[in-house]
Amino acid sequence: MRKLFQHCLFLMLLLACNTLFSQNRIELNTGWYCRNISEVKTDGAALSDAGFELKEWLPATVPGTVLTTLLNNKLVPDPFIGMNNQRIPDIYATGNAHYTYWFVKDFETDAAAGEQVWLQFRGVNYKCEVWLNGKKLNSKTHEGMLLRQQYNITSVLRSGKKNRLAVLVYPPDNVGNPNGGQGGDGTIARDLTTPYTAGWDWIQPVRDRNTGIWDKVTIEKTGAVNISDLHVITTVPGKRKVDGKQAPALINMSCRITNAGNASVKGILQYQLDGNSIQQSVSVRAGESVEVSMPAFQLNNPKLWWPAGYGPQHLYKTSVQFIQSDKKVSDKEELQIGVRQIETVWNGHTQSMQTNVNGQKIFIKGGNWIISDAMLRFSPERYDAEVRFHRDMNLNLIRIWGGALTERPEFYEACDKYGMLVFQDFWFSGDCNGRWLDPMKKDDQWTRRKYPDNHNLTIETMADQIKLIRNYPSLAFWCGGNEIAPPDDILHALRDSLLPMLDGTRRFFDYSNSDSMSYNSLGGNGDGPYTIQDESVFWNYRTFPFNSEIGSVGVGDYASLLRFIPVENLVPPPINGKADSVWEYHKYIPYHHHVNAYGAVKDAKDFAMKAQLVNYTQYRSLIEGHTAHMWDWYTGTIIWKTQNPWTSLRGQMYDYYLDVNACLYGLRTGSKPLHIMMNPTDSMIMLANHGFERATNLMLEAHVVDVKSGKDTMYSQAFSEVGPATVQKIFPLNGFLSSLGKNAGSFVLLRIRNAQRKLIDENFYWLPGADKQFTALQQMPSARLQVSAKETAKGIVQVTLSNDAKQPVAFFNRVALIDTKTGKRILPAFFSDNYVSVMPGESKVIEVEYPATDLSPKEVQVYGWNVAETSVKIR
Is position 413 annotated as part of the catalytic site? Predict the structure, then answer.
């Protein structure tokens, strides 16, 4: 009854509020113009006068970089295609003035009586001067790519007239020599910007070094009181189950309120959660800014947020409002709350960190994330697609690598939605910041160890970025940098002051492969390897107990290669020696003998197909090998890497254009929460359960299938069970692998069925002969698949692949969704499975989801190892 009374009182209070102030925020994301500084012969005061003519100015892309604007105006070629990047002048050679630009934007708004108007920049790289209506807003030059800016522009606005904003943007002072080193000559790290833009082993230099107004510019209107720096902490004590009634959780909320008016203001700060109103009376003097803590709130029977694969990702939507004593809503900030508690404990057995969420231990299956787009062309839709791919791979963590940036809020929103824990590096890298002796670097290690030059700016920016992202439930860890900690004074400020004061809930690691995260008893760098390995390596050779970077190859399929490699350069790489110049420029790493084990490569298309077979087995083996030793050798691993922000030919589960390759589906198969797998060296069948509950009444099936005929021999079948967070050895396929010396290879099909005989996991291996060659696959007869497709809902297509009982296995089939007008794939597309094999007499159903806004006519394309390409219309 009391709860109902509180709810009614809250609604009455809201209805009584006179929302005179609009509390709206608009983005200034169109109508910008720009011009190089050398072509502008006047100052900011004149430029920011709406009467100044903008003849011959370029339409500008904001948010965006100078290079993006030049590309959109067709003044430079697409640097992601072929060798085009070499045709674009590099800032190191041209000098900074070449990419120093004025940006101008006209807009109309005014301030009502008692209203305050705020101009906000979420990211400018690297320095800027800001002018509005003839007045300079920043008293000193703003510096720092990630440091946000906010200006109260109420007194500068021209009521009822056009307002003009003019921003002069300077590149980083130290752009670095792009000499082929990691971060070029390293000097780009002297500034607090993105070191990757001087080049890395997975990207060529970004010619303007990301200069520009690269993130959102907004206008916000409030009353006298403005709310900022929201901070929510959720406490979930005890060990929780996913289902059933939950014990209470505790919610603590605080924020900063600033009175920009000329009189003291009294009011109520409040938010609503689960039908309850949490309120705090506040009085703030004119010009004052204060921190306000709300009363702690006990949330009964909370709906918890869980990492992907363990439970749902429930999010509570709320808003924090300041309601003045005269009932006017002065400001309102929207917020999503994920109720969870993340703890990191030391696992003494593995000698590495162990992650617990809501009291349950989580085996980390992660991917390293560089940046979504090298030219910073971010969008919520792209973020959503990329993070979804990680969820679809059955991963549960994304690490933000330190040579880039703090990702944008829209990225963390996607991670909240899909259940991706986030391991957030700060902006340091051992390559640039002095960990190793490096002849490519301009400065010695002692000098580089002090980078960046402005330590105070770094600390200020760290504080700002912590406030920006600390409320996202997906954010799980802070890390000082990639393979190196920040300089001592920055490290101490971050670890001992900023994080305890501004967060206090997440574990901080000095650097990404430090002993505090994963004790290195093996020697070496503490991470890797990064190149292609025999499958047995991942299973049988112990690596670091929580490996922050381990990876392999990742060339996309032929359709992917066609997007950025000119036809004349589509030459398959040799087993040894250098590949074609364009492949080398796009950072190809060799597959060595692994591709040719499937037969001599005929052309680039044949290479791409065989590379997908290697991709699938590489990443399935990587994750299965780690899973086989979970809680014994390992508490988790993070793959280097899952994506590229450029058209690179290594380490990716999908290409820059968001087209998937077989890496994704090999990883998806090997990472399933309940999974049957086989150690390729001793044929031991194993059962892995990542969940919190014992899995019982599981029927395990092991089939050996003849490659040429498709004949299926049921090798073994047994009921089994497996405990929570456990991997269990079941039985070996005795003598099976040794018998392969008598033939040229075999298929092994493993399945799990539940008590209702429903198939809940399947794993299909193709094994070479004793000579490590896939001779049997090369001799496979053709199979004909029956393919049908129907649209079951808007944006969802169901594809059925059927194989006749008298045919061989229809092996390794790629499904794609095609725009019939252009003949090209519709991207992104999300497949419930892909690169699938269909047994004789069986069918497989694949669900394809694509953006429902795409109204183009479509068909489904299917092709496989021994299945000719076919296309069918969608019913």
Answer: no
